[in-house]
Specification:
141 residues; mainly alpha; elongated
Length: 141
């Protein structure tokens, strides 16, 4: 499964909105400038998020976007499914051998579990310092 720029940039928008809860609406121009992304592209991603009631828009000179729910109530899975569609590592698994079918299902379920247990609150409060203090994964060949 590959997450496209739609999913990645959609997560970026939502994380930035979560980081700014309580500061009022945030313009896409602000997010685009800070993250060096295309404002036009971000504008295309917001309607599905608004239709899914994850963001709300505020019109006017000081308008922009805000989360429509609390960050702890929105998961990465919610955002990815809205922008990318269903989470499936392989198409047409029903035509696969049983052993391969079981593998694809386990992979799908593992990905779903990570996406559905990671909240926007988790992502917005992610601290690189904490991660660096933990033992990194060590791979031996």
């Amino acid at each position: 499964m590959k997450i496209s720029t739609k999913g990645r940039y959609g997560l970026t928008i939502m994380i930035e909105l979560a980081k700014r809860v309580g500061e009022g609406p945030v313009s896409l121009k602000t997010i685009a400038n800070e993250k060096q992304l295309s404002e036009h592209y971000l504008e295309q991603l917001v309607p599905p998020l608004r239709n899914a009631c994850l963001v709300k828009s505020v019109r006017g000179a000081y308008g922009g976007y805000m989360l429509a729910k609390e960050a702890k109530d929105i998961t990465a899975g919610d955002i990815i499914r809205i922008l990318e569609g269903p989470i499936t590592p392989v198409e047409g698994i029903e035509n696969e051998e049983p052993a391969k079918q079981a593998l694809w299902i386990r992979i799908r379920d593992a990905v779903k579990n990570v996406l559905d247990t990671t909240t926007l609150d988790d992502l917005s409060k992610y601290n690189e310092e904490d991660q660096l203090s933990q033992d990194p994964y060590m791979f031996y060949i």
